[in-house]
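#onboarding

Welcome to the new folks! Below is a worked example of what a typical request in this channel looks like: someone posts a single protein sequence, and someone else replies with the predicted structure as tokens. Don't worry about understanding the tokens yet, we'll cover that in week two.

Example request:
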Amino acid sequence: MSTDHDPYSSLRIPDFRNFLIAVSLVRIGTAAQGLAIGWEIYDRTDQALALGLVGLVQAIPMLLFTLPAGYLADVFDRRKLIMLSLAGATLTSLALAAFSFLEAAVVWLYIILFLDSTFLRMGWPAWSSILPLLVPKENFENAVKWRTSLMQITGIIGPAFGGFIIAVNIQAAYLLSALSSVVFILFLTRMRLPPAPRIQRGNMIAQVAEGIRFVWRKKLLLGAISLDLFAVLLGGAVYLLPIFARDIIHLDSVGLSPEQALGWLRAAPAIGACAMAFLLAYLPPLKRSGRILLGSVAGFGLATIVFGLSQDFWLSLFVLSLTGAFDNVSVVVRHVVTQMSTPNEMRGRVSAVNAVFIGSSNEVGGFESGLVAQIFTPVISVVSGGIGTLLVVFGWSRLFPDLKDLGSLSSLSGDTPKGIQQN
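Example response:
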């Protein structure tokens, strides 16, 4: 390891440190709410397809509103857009708690979930494109590594905490999500961003199309985004975890209730990702990034296949942690490629295109997994998805040679505003 490599370089920047803390609190609340809604709907319906619909109602706002939100992020104050988005999400979390307490029809939970996703998607491009404004270019890869580390720590805490919460009171998980959003809004009121280029208001459709054309022309960027899209679309085992926790995995020997097992299974990918994130943070910058990216997605597919075939709790926990470890590598490479190969005045729109690809693949992938599980079995759904992921890696290594040959991430061009302070 190089002696001049500072694994804490980005954490020495106060605004970045504070941003990580605030984001982590929101992720804990969001993870607990996501676990709760999946458990409540499956518990009330006993239908795998009902879990798939959870993904579908969240995917529709992603497809409808993310690209316009990317335009807004390039025109308006990104900090204020995030605050408005979180305010709406706070109200929907409170509504979920109220409708759950009143045992309203499941269709109302779907409607509120649709609104919740709408608010979050309107703020996501601004949220995603704000990070390059907080750190200098030379610290950006390190910042992404630490951000993913904290994301995974909260990914462990949120589901595990959520599993114990819903075993006692499911509405408390929704209230926790609302509280965390309020805390983040309070933090954002005190945050000031350095000046950065923006675009002038104009024809939204034309300017959104400009962002799409930018991604299409940048084959490296297109390959990285679309690889993750199809891998996540096919590897959507997470949405079926309530079925595996209650009906497939043997729990007699581990002394856990299905609700508690669900919390740990949902946290397992984050455990693996957290370990990988800390390892990446201490390692020097990646050199053969493209091959590492393709290998990590292939590992994700293999681990998914093993999970689908397993009925042992500990083996299932282990291979789920591997999916998180492999996915974390993919997240780091893809996020650095997306942000650092894009000028600031286009980052909102490019982040929106990326969010449509990745976010819709998560939600549509959840629907696809639930549908296949309903028609066939949950095991067939998960195993076939893992096999599909391996086929995608094979195809993308040939369709996008620039992606396979990508070397150091620091070689990517980008721009960083002046005025970032360290201490």
